[in-house]
Design goal:
This protein has 14 helices and twelve strands. The chain is α/β, with parallel strands linked by helices. β1 (33-38), α2 (43-57) and β2 (60-65) form a beta-alpha-beta unit.
């Protein structure tokens, strides 16, 4: 078959157009995977975020729940597109972030105190006793309340560098001078006495469930998911003297008086009302990706999280970020390059 010059020209033009279209599609496909790692505190929320985001956009977001400390380290190393932490990076850590840092607050949440005492279904722990339990000063349940079993307390903590631990120890340091001097605020503190250690929030919950006489701390969603005959959630005394459980309503009440700083951090060590042990969780993103496609994809993801995604928070027992704050964060997100 012999083609005319005009026909050949049209065929070649179509072929080149098709190749260009395919190349563009392949480029988009390669760009449509983002990788992140960090905090286990918001892991249930992020899993839902990223599943819904993929359904809406086709973009895959892989998230590895490795703990805040590991998430910050991977972010510094540049092995992920974004990190995640419940504790703001230190000045030293920020100094290692060569492409800058934007902290994007995504949610607030409560850290529940969970325990395993068969037959004890409504444990209340005072401010004074909570700090003493986790500094090793109180070692028997009878010291917490004479009505409780004469049984040693087995304290369960995180085995990894943890933003949940930093939220928890920040609160205890704020309410207990003794705890502050003995343990202090840290993602990975030296507790100063014998403790049991579990990896991530789900590891602590599992260890409490299987260890009679134990007490530990986990993000509230993990507490509710694991509650049962061998693990329950304690009511904790707040600044107003009330014993409250870590419900969404009480967490929202605690969040009402929180003021955000210019870098979107916030001091939540000892709220005046509501559930007293609450914290913010952030995504860590560079200000300069040096990759226009990656920067554009991250900006789209963050915009979705700060708008549509916020509607998911309450469904999973996380508080929303106030709209007045998300608007300011979005302005900074738009500057990412």
């Amino acid at each position: 078959m012999i083609f005319s010059t005009a026909t050949l020209t049209r065929v070649c033009a179509v072929s080149f157009a098709t190749a260009a279209a395919l190349a563009g599609t392949m480029g988009e496909a390669f760009a449509q995977t983002l990788n992140g790692a960090g905090a286990s505190f918001p892991a249930p929320l992020y899993q839902r975020y990223f599943a819904d985001y993929k359904n809406a956009t086709g973009v895959t977001v892989n998230y590895n729940s490795v703990g805040s400390g590991a998430g910050v380290r991977q972010f510094i190393a540049g092995t992920v597109d974004f990190g995640a932490s419940d504790a703001a990076p230190s000045s030293s850590e920020k100094g290692q972030m060569k492409n800058g840092l934007l902290l994007v607050p995504t949610a607030g949440g409560a850290v529940a105190v969970v325990y395993n005492l068969p037959g004890v279904n409504n444990l209340q722990i005072s401010r004074a006793n909570l700090g003493k339990i986790f500094s090793g000063e109180i070692t028997n349940w009878r010291q917490v309340d004479p009505k409780l079993p004469n049984q040693p307390i087995k304290v369960v903590v995180r085995a990894d560098g943890s933003g949940t631990t930093e939220i928890f120890t920040s609160h205890l340091s704020a309410i207990s001078p003794s705890f502050k001097s003995k343990v202090g605020t840290s993602k990975e503190p030296n507790w100063g006495f014998t403790v049991l250690k579990g990896p991530k929030n789900d590891g602590v919950a599992a260890l409490v469930k299987q260890t009679e006489g134990s007490i530990g701390y986990v993000q509230d969603t993990f507490a509710r998911k694991n509650e049962g005959a061998t693990m329950r959630t304690a009511r904790i005394q707040n600044k107003a003297g009330q014993f409250v459980e870590p419900s969404l309503a009480q967490a929202n009440k605690a969040m009402e008086g929180i003021k955000f700083n210019a870098d979107f951090t916030a001091n939540m060590d000892d709220p005046s009302s509501g559930y007293p042990i609450v914290g913010i969780t952030w995504l860590l993103v560079p200000k300069d990706y040096a990759d226009n496609k990656k920067a554009a994809e991250i900006k789209r993801l963050l915009t979705w999280i700060l708008t549509t995604g916020q509607g998911i928070n309450n469904q999973l027992e996380f508080t929303r970020i106030p709209q007045s704050v998300t608007q300011k964060v979005l302005a900074e997100v738009n500057k990412i390059k």
